Amino acid sequence: MPRPRKYRRVCCLPKVNEFGPLNKKESNNFVFMTVEEYETIRLMDLENLSQEETAERMGVARSTIQRIYEEARKKLADFIVNGKTLKIEGGDYRVCDFNVDNNRCSLCRRHGRMFGQEKD
């Protein structure tokens, strides 16, 4: 019996989960990125965290982050180079706790964000 997959922690879900070329009316060519691949790209490339810091935030091993990151980069390259539609969905993840009392995410300490949306 295989070991059950470990859930990855993500801070928030993407605000937009589908991207594609503007000059195509319909596209049947999709690239599917999981939410944890999206989160890895967000943390490493947007927030400039190391693999170790990203692994700590997501609650998995550094080698797992390295594998997730490599897959995400391949998917981004396929999306950009081949003009496909990118959809972000699915995966083995849990959205981290948002403490309503002090308006903070308990894991990443981001203010005022819950499920990818600004809170007033």
TrEMBL record:
InterPro entries: Cro/C1-type_HTH, RNA_pol_sigma_r3/r4-like, UPF0251, WH-like_DNA-bd_sf
Domain HTH cro/C1-type: 48-68
Gene3D superfamilies: Winged helix-like DNA-binding domain superfamily/Winged helix DNA-binding domain
Domain of life the protein comes from: Bacteria
Pfam (any one): DUF134
GO-annotated molecular function: DNA binding
Residue intervals passing through the bilayer: none
UniProt keywords, alphabetically: DNA-binding
HAMAP family cross-referenced by the UniProt entry: UPF0251 (MF_00674)
Family: Belongs to the UPF0251 family.
Protein name: UPF0251 protein SAMN02746091_02592
